[in-house]
Specification:
The complex is a heterodimer of chains A (328) and B (308). Chain A is 74% helix and 3% strand. Chain A has 328 residues and is mostly helical. In chain A, strand 1 and strand 2 form a beta hairpin. In chain A, helix 1 packs antiparallel against helix 13 and helix 10 packs antiparallel against helix 13. Chain B starts with 13 loop residues before the first helix and ends in a 7-residue tail after the last helix. Chain B has 308 residues and is an all-alpha fold. In chain B, strands 1-2 form a two-stranded antiparallel sheet. Helices cover 69% and strands 1% of the residues of chain B. The radius of gyration of chain B is 23 Å and the shape is elongated. Classes of the chains: A mainly alpha (328), B mainly alpha (308). Chains A and B meet through helix 1, helix 6, helix 7, helix 8 and helix 10 of A and helix 7, helix 10, helix 11 and helix 12 of B.
Chain lengths: 328, 308
Amino acid sequence: MIYYAGRRLLSVIGVLIAVAAITFVIFYVLPSDPAAAACGKSCSTERLAAIRAHMGLDQPLWRQFTDFVTGIFTGRTMGSGQYTLHCHVPCLGYSYENNQDVWDLMMDRLPVSASLAFGAAVIWLVLGLSAGVVAALRKDTLTDRALMVGSVAAASLPVYFTSMMLIYGVIRIAGLLPYPSYVPFGDDPLHWASNLLLPWLALAILYAAMYARQSRSSMIETMAEPYIRTARAKGLPYRTVVVKHGLRAGMTPILTLFGMDLGGLLAGAVITESLFGLPGIGRLFYGALSSGDQPVILGVTLLAATFIVIANLVVDLLYAVVDPRVRY
Amino acid sequence: MALTSTVAPAGSGPWQRARQQLGRRASVKISLVVIALFAIMAVAAPLLSTLGGWSPEEFDKTAVDPYLGGQPIGPLGGISADHWLGVEPVTGRDLFARVVHGAQVSLLIAFAATAIVVVAGTAAGIAAGYFGGRTDAVLSRLMDLTMSFPSLIFMIAMMSVARDVNRIVLMTAVIGLFGWPGIARVVRGQTLSLKHREYVDAARVGGSGPWRILTRDVLPGVAGPVIAYTTLIIPGMIATEAALSYLGVGVRPPTPSWGQMIAESVAFYDTDPTYFVIPSTCLFLTVLAFTLLGDALRDVLDPRGSRT
């Protein structure tokens, strides 16, 4: 187990280096003028000169890359003379649009994205898994049909459609809730939840539908296994068989999916956050797209990749706990 | 479709049976009709917009009310005999023409990206499964690596950096780049289970080279799951294209695409909801139809396995 964890950790580092290399290529090699790209759409000549000095574009490419990677672990001092800028650990660059360190910008907004992701995850797991398991246990009944038709339809709804319907129906027409504005959990948990309720629902509907479909097929497959028949044959109550034998094996494939999805959402749900006006990483990213703030786009890309890779690692290690057949 | 290409006389071949099973499902018929409708719409876009009387980029200032902030004149976003689906607020561009041309862009990108994904994924999967050893190790690593990327964010990043290339080609390539490992895994698994079947051994003993075995014996064996999987990834491709255009990194205005129309309509959701509903409904119906068709195809062509 420890050997396995160590090996996986090494491969995680490998993947992260690959991710850093590819992001580097995207932002430093592809654009015709990386400094102008980093400077964004509203850029003065003086600013551009400073950025040229910061990015070290006169250095050979390999040197730029090693500076970029070591900067993440040790921080870096960019430029010289009047253009000196210190970027602290982990240095993911400097947003010239916001006059702020990219890392600080993202960390300010992480709690919003994390609140959105975790809250939505709770809702979609409860809805999606219970719908999927119920449908699987009542395969080919009316309940099953209705649940599956509903989830195919819900999975086909683009997230902006659900979001806009919620905004229009609940906020505009019914006036049940105010337009969301983020309240930190520490300040007022109740307002935190009521403001996030609609964004949670908008995200959760889509994911719940996908999880219902997935968990239904996984559960049907599991319930057809010989060991389930054995458990039934030796006289265990149906309930025990479903809960103890069926769910455990049936839900393992869901774990992989969940790791990917949650990891991806932690770095921001771009569309949901911008529609509901939540100041999370996704909205930061969206803003950076329209103002051409490349360092922020780069930072969020790296952060998202890191979350996904770590989530995958955690899931792989959890597998051994959940599924006794998995041995490392 | 491949279903019609293999004709056996008595209706007893595997493809015949598959077709009979599919024909019995109402959902298959409905989704095929919807898909055909949108496909015709995309192909005949110029013709249809001529029939409607408006080109997608033509402004009609008489259809909007300048004193109400450019609100369309008339009920339901200005739906009239002149403008069949109403007009865009402010500019007065004809929504029917834009939706029809948007279908062309959206479906073209989705289908082209799917084609890249299927060809690359099948080739990689067959090679990894059949040759095994180092080929398999390298390709499998590459699949793992690609799959551990936050693909949407990477696509956005790439689209936002590259500025002076054909957006449609670039978008197709970028979507295709991140899509191939899924199908490669399915094909690899299927190939592994096929390569030691007796008929493949027989072909090998009979002196067939690897190329002949792969194309004549293995490829037909993986065709079923590949067709099912292909149909199931198309909705994802359409949704990805829409999301990229929605975020403003897809096709550039004035070229319409559904995602971009939805993004523009969000600002008017309060005053002109019809503008939002029309492209959203098109997107929803297309995605739904492909998902239903894909589900049915998977049930029939790939009853077990390849589901992870």
